[in-house]
Every structure is written in structure tokens, then in C-alpha cells.
Amino acid sequence: MRRHRNVKIVATLGPASNDYQTIKALHEAGADVFRLNMSHGTHEDIAERHKIIRMIEKELNSPIAILADLQGPKLRVGVFANGEEELVEGATFRLDLTDAPGDVTRVNLPHPEIFAALRPDAHLLVNDGKIRLRVTSCSRDHADCVVITGGTISNRKGVNVPDVVLPLAALSDKDRKDLEFACELGVDWLALSFVQRPEDLMEARELARGRAAILSKIEKPSAVERFNDILNVSDGIMVARGDLGVELPVQNVPPIQKRLVRRCRAAAKPVIVATQMLESMIESPMPTRAEVSDVATAIYEGADAIMLSAESAAGNYPIEAVTTMNNVAVEVESDPTYREVIEASRTAERQSVADGIVAAAREIAETTDIKAICCYTQSGTTALLTARERPRVPIIAMTSLMSTARRLALTWGTNCVMSGEKIRFKEAVVSAVRAALAEGYATQNDQIVITAGVPFNIPGTTNILRVAPCNERMIYSMDPE
To answer: Residue 348: which pLDDT band, with cuts at 50, 70 and 90?
Structure first.
């Protein structure tokens, strides 16, 4: 299914979008990737949604990526004798390991690893940052705090600790079970929550054993500080602005978003911008002007994908939300300023023959009348490098591996076409021309650029480029049949 835009759309599935007709309508409206939130729903629910997506993929002959988002460790306070208490600014409040129900002076925090890492003047944020506490003194079993921002604290509210790196693994016991279940199902991407350092990815990668690509969610200040190291060991990145906006001053999030997107582009790794993009569409059929501008900003920055969360999972208007996002993307990418911004922010990091080949393909496409760049790829790397160039013409990724086609559904500008294994370059040229004609990227006597690696079917061997006319004479003269 050809899209008339380059940025990809990720739609989260949930109670509002868990049946065949709705999921199909979401894909037809513009969703390229479906996110399965492992924090909600049973394994049976997840398996049913996965099955439906694969049925739609087969029916429409359109590779679809499935992203399983792991929950990660959840830090929460205990319970209160009265269910809730009102904390007043300037009051003292203790967090401890005592199991007794809490009151206005204290509450249980059943996470000894937090106390092991805390230090005086560190901050604790409760209930998405609505309550802010500053540690005055602490030990291995308690932390005495002063209330900086007061409010209502109630049972099992979440706790964020932005100032310290916690000695916690990124995978909980639940996550390990969910990871194995998702890999057995056959998801394409695993999103890892609570990433603080590059070492947090090692366990997930070992457990996945290559069955899914690993995407790191950047939602903690420590992950921002060590972003380059995390990027090096990740297959993709999600800028999770919700938790970032809780743990950091909100004014810090936009420049961080721009910086992370640009680094991902330079590294040729896909990046998703997520959280609250069209939040008002949970209850309204129309977004706010500010939300539309937010979506447009991510597109102007060159993000590979933009994501809907509750808007498509639990909102009243899931299809309208995807349609809105699609329409904004089409409009932004048709703006001449878009190309100016994208090309001005292009970063050259060329160290290999493949880098040179894809850069040359983009330059040829932009200086002559080329209709598409067609790249043969086994692992997906050539397509990622081509997408890094952000060419003005469509990218057709030809692959014999469905797993590669699905993973590339998350990558900017890539349109995947399944192609049988090739032995000779002549076969590749003919298949590429036929695909460009069949999918409507070119017409008779147009030209396309073709990149490939010889010998074929060996990852990392991109070493050849050809400009080919799209006409029957060329096909007949080269077709080995």
C-alpha cells in the first residue's frame, strides 16, 4: 500500500481498536506500524491482535511492523489508611520500607533499591510529578523529605527518581515473560522501557536472540546524558516525551527532542517521536492547533515516525486521529520549506562503500529526472542508509525477507516490495523496473536508480549503482527468461 508521505505513523491498539474492521481501517487510514502495549491486556488479547494484523497484511499485500512495548519496572508507593492524604508545601514526609498503611506523615515505598541510590537533595516525584519531594536525609530503609510541591497523594501512585541512576534492571520478571511471548508470536520490534545506560539493553538482546529489533525508549535524564552510548547498541529509538517531561523541566524537552532526532538520523537508525501528539482527540474529533503544530514539528525535524497512544488505543476517534496525522504529514511534506529544513539538517557520516553508493544515488536522483531509488537489501542496512540521505524521490526497498520488509515499515520513506532471491544483477534490474512500474512510482521511459550488492544475498555488500530506463525494451533485452 503506497503512502504519499515519508514519515511513518505508529498506532497503539487497545479497547477502542481491537477488532478486524477497526485495525484494517486504521491501516488504510495511514497506520504503518501497530504498537502492542504489554502493560495492558492479557497474552490472549495480544495474540489475537497480532493475528488480526497478520491477516490484514496478507489480505492487502502490505508489510506491517508490529512493535511490542514492554512495561519496565514500575515504582509505586504503598497504601494509605484513609486511601489518600493531602501533603502541604513545607511539611515533612517519610518514605520507608515499613508495611503499615500510610498517613499524612509517611508511607511505604517497597523498593529498597531506591533507598540504596538516594542522596540528600535528590528529588522524588509522585503521581506524574504533581507532588515533588526533596530528600533531606536518607538511609538503607527510609528517606526523610520536605514537600516542595503539595497535593493529594493516594494508594499506589507512581514514583519517579530523576536525579540518580537506580540499580534496577530494565527488565522485570513480567517483562522477561512478555518478551519471550512477543518473540514467539513474531513481533518485529521490542520497545524497552526504563533504559538508563547502554548495559540495560544487553539482557533484552540476549533474550531476543535476533528474533526482534530492539528499540530504546528515552524517558529518563540519565538516558539523555548517555544517549550516544545507548544509540550505538540500539536498533532504534523512541523519544518518550511523557516521562521526560515529568523528570525534566518541560522547557528542556523540545531541544532534547530535536537533538536526539538529529543524532538518530546521522546514525541511520529509526526514531519515533511519541506521547500526547493528538491528545485532545481522545475525546474530540478535531485536534487543537497546538497539537497539529507539534506533529508538524516532528515531521520537519525528519523523525522516522510519529506515534499515537491513547488516541488510537482508548479514544473515541481512533480512525480520525490516524487520518489527521496522515493529512498533516502530507501537507507538511508538500511544503517547500520542508525540503529546505531537511536538507539543511542532513549530516554526512560516510565511512564505507555503501555510504558512498547511497549518497551518490541521492545526488543523481536530485540532479536528474529520476523517479525512485530502488535498493536491494537483506538485513535492511542499505535501506536505512538510503533513508538517512532523506532523498526527494521515493525509496523502494527490495528484499526477499518478510522480516526485513516488516522492520523497515518503521523507517522514513521506505516502501517495501517482496522480491525473490537474485543471483545476477540483470535479474535485479528487471525486477526493480517491474516493481517501479507496477507500484506506480514510474511510467514508461522514466528512469530509476538501482543499488545492490554483488554477490547477492550477503548482507553488507552494497557496491553497485545503475540508472535504468523503465521501458519494455530494456526489460526484454535484460530479462534472463
So the answer is: low
